[in-house]
């Protein structure tokens, strides 16, 4: 899917998931990140994500969850297709870089 050589880093992925500026994952999901308070309840708990889905499934959900579920409220973190109300700064750009996508997938894979 992409050509960079560095494998995903679970520690960097955890930081992205926990970040209130970057992934914003905890707005909708809860995760086993005890230091972060006020975690979301709108989406599935990320605990056990690595047992429920393969790396490829996790990557596809993160890249563009609308492919699985057209009604998904999850941002398409690695897509620029068919998006609504995209701010000027983000037009034509993905939310995550390929490396960030790999890092988040690597972290989610550790959640067994």
List the helices and strands and how they pair.
Blueprint: H1 10-18, H2 49-52, H3 55-64, H4 98-109
Descriptive account of the structure:
This is Sulfur oxidation c-type cytochrome SoxX. This protein has a single domain, classed as Cytochrome Bc1 Complex, Chain D, domain 2, CATH 1.10.760.10. With 112 residues, it is an all-alpha fold. It has helices at residues 10-18, 49-52, 55-64, 98-109. Helix 1 (10-18) packs across helix 4 (98-109) and helix 3 crosses helix 4. Helices cover 31% and strands 0% of the residues.
Q: How much is the radius of gyration in Å?
A: 13 Å
CATH class: Mainly Alpha
Q: How would you describe the shape?
A: globular
Given the structure, what is the number of helices? 4
- Residue share in helices? 25-40%
> How many structural domains?
1
What is the name of the CATH superfamily?
Cytochrome c-like domain
Give the ordered list of helices and strands: HHHH
Structural class: mainly alpha
How many DSSP-defined strands?
Answer: 0
List low-confidence stretches.
none
Mean pLDDT: 92
CATH topology: Cytochrome Bc1 Complex, Chain D, domain 2
Q: Give the second-level CATH assignment, the architecture.
A: Orthogonal Bundle
Spatial separation of the terminal alpha carbons: 25 Å
> Mind describing the biggest β-sheet?
none
Keywords: Heme, Iron, Metal-binding
Domain Cytochrome c: 8-112
InterPro entries: Cyt_c-like_dom (IPR009056), Cyt_c-like_dom_sf (IPR036909), Thiosulf_SoxX (IPR030999)
Protein name: Sulfur oxidation c-type cytochrome SoxX
């Amino acid at each position: 899917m992409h050509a960079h050589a560095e494998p995903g880093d679970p520690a960097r992925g955890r930081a992205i998931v926990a970040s209130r500026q970057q992934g914003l994952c905890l707005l909708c999901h809860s995760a086993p990140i005890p230091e972060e308070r006020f975690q979301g309840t709108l989406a599935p708990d990320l605990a056990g994500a690595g047992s429920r889905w393969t790396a490829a499934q996790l990557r596809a959900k993160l890249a563009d969850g609308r492919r699985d579920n057209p009604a998904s409220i999850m941002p398409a973190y690695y897509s620029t297709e068919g998006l609504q109300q995209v701010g000027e700064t983000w037009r034509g750009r993905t939310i995550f870089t390929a490396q960030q996508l790999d890092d988040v997938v690597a972290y989610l894979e550790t959640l067994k």
